[in-house]
Task: inverse folding
């Protein structure tokens, strides 16, 4: 009995190494609470709080530095596989921390962004990032869902944070209703998967049979992936994206369009690569259909809109379809190294490009309408050559044209898909990339080839414009460097997944009638022995 208690305590109580490996998450949570408490002592809570911003910056810098310090540590699983300390987790921590830091700086360096820098916004943004880190480091469904809800609830509030804007409140309500529906779909899928496997750990799902003779298992995984497709804005689960992107402030839109998708993409990578031990033609077909539909809708619907944000929203829908090439390759071959490298490379490249593009839009929105139209960019090349050049680099990257970073990302996705026999989906991606190039080029024509008119935006020269140029210039340089030397981190990343020790982990108990086995859980053995003893004891 004492050994049983010790085993359970080792599983429930984390070791000292856990706190070191999970320090980025803990730093963000502590920093978020400290930033919120500092707002209590402000005389005017409606004004920007740069003290809270300073606390957030320190926490994010420390959170980005810790994974680099611990990069040589061996993969380890903690909290019953609720936290996986491996190379993929550390990579995601660095990207999420730096992306959040970029978002806060982008808001602090614009007039309209500074109006949002109150302690509650800083706190919500850091809580959201901590939730993303929990998602990317989770090894089972419950921890993942906890991180997903931490992020989702924070984003619901952030979208409607501009309370005086009716469109923002409408978008927040739409996002909340559809997001809650997606969460319910994921929960139902988790329940069906547990019904078949008897475990929520992804490492225990090698027995999950995704075939018509196991309908509950197939339906459960289908529901989980459809719920995640909503978070990625994959068609036909994309209807919320244009409205939410258009109504939110550009800095928050860039955050939602990049870091959230980056994190969910890594979660799908873990599920497909570490959980499903055998290839599934049904999942390949699902991702084939979702990818083709998303690429087609995102590439064509962007042609009919004049709003720059809505165009970038449909661009993000098309890019979510590009992710499906790697998902389908992983579903066909869960051990595919090229698919893992392509997904991590393109997810990070997409994050850099979109964060930079929305930072430029946030700068241009100062003194103008928050929803910029395409014709309002006319003459930008003569008014502000730096902003026009930076936006051109990011648009070239999203279109996949060298020397911007997007070319290598798309090339790796196509290579991974073709290597697994998904040539048709790869050809479809290339064809619709040419279609989407039209609305990218239409923005460049407005900026460089058309003269300024009375409808053109007025570029403001604020005291912080030099710092904002430095921030955007950093993203431009990173994009060009990746475009020249390639995403080398994708091949250097250690994709070894940490797993829980079998002696501590709970045995998997399949509830499928043809595969049911006796329980090996020591707790069940103790209960059975106690019941047998009670049954043999004579009653007085």
Result:
């Amino acid at each position: 009995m004492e050994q049983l208690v010790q085993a359970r305590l080792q599983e429930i109580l984390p070791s000292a190494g856990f706190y070191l490996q999970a320090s980025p998450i803990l730093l963000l949570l502590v920093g978020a609470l400290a930033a919120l408490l500092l707002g209590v002592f402000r005389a005017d809570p409606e004004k920007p709080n740069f003290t809270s911003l300073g606390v957030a910056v320190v926490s994010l810098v420390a959170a980005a530095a810790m994974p680099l310090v611990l990069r040589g540590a061996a993969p380890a699983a903690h909290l019953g596989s609720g936290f996986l300390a491996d190379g993929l987790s550390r990579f995601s921590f660095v990207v999420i921390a730096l992306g959040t830091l970029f978002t806060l700086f982008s808001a602090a360096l614009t007039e309209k962004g500074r109006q949002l820098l109150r302690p509650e916004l800083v706190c919500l943004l850091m809580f959201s990032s901590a939730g993303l880190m929990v998602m990317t480091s989770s090894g089972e469904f419950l921890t993942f869902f906890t991180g997903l809800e931490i992020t989702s609830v924070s984003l619901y509030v952030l979208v409607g944070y501009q309370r005086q804007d009716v469109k923002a409140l409408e978008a927040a309500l739409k996002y909340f209703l559809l997001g809650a529906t997606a969460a319910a779909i994921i929960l139902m899928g988790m329940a069906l998967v547990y019904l078949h496997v008897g475990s929520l750990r992804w490492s225990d799902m090698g027995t999950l049979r995704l075939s018509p003779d196991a309908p509950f298992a197939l339906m459960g995984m289908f529901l989980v992936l459809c719920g995640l497709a909503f978070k990625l804005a994959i068609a036909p689960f994309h209807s919320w994206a244009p409205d939410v992107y258009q109504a939110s402030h550009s800095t928050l839109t860039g955050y939602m369009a990049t870091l959230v998708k980056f994190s969910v993409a890594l979660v799908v990578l873990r599920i497909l690569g570490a959980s499903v031990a055998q290839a599934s033609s049904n999942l390949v077909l699902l991702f084939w259909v979702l990818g083709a539909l998303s690429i087609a809708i995102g590439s064509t619907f962007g042609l009919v809109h004049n709003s720059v944000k809505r165009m970038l929203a449909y661009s993000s829908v098309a890019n979510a379809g590009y992710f499906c090439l790697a998902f389908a390759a992983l579903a066909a071959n869960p051990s595919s190294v090229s698919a893992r490298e392509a997904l991590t490379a393109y997810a990070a490249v997409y994050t850099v490009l979109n964060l930079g593009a929305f930072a430029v839009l946030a700068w241009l929105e100062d003194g103008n309408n928050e929803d910029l139209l395409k014709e309002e960019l006319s003459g930008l090349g003569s008014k502000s050559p730096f902003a026009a050049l930076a936006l051109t680099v990011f648009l070239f990257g999203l279109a996949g044209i060298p020397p911007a970073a997007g070319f290598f990302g798309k090339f790796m996705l196509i290579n991974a898909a073709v290597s697994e026999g998904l040539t048709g989906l790869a050809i479809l991606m290339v064809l619709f990339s040419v279609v989407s190039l039209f609305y990218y080029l239409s923005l460049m024509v407005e900026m460089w080839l058309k003269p300024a008119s009375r409808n053109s935006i007025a570029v403001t020269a604020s005291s912080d414009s030099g710092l904002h140029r430095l921030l955007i210039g950093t993203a431009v340089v990173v994009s060009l460097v990746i475009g020249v030397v390639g995403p080398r981190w994708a091949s250097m990343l250690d994709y070894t997944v940490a797993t829980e020790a079998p002696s501590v982990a709970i045995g998997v108990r399949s509830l499928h009638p043809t595969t049911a086995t006796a329980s090996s859980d020591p707790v069940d053995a103790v209960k059975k022995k106690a019941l047998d003893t009670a049954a043999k004891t004579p009653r007085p």
User: Anything to note?
Assistant: The CA atoms of residues 134 and 170 lie 29 Å apart. The longest strand covers residues 76-78. Residues 502-531, 534-540 have pLDDT under 50 and may be disordered.
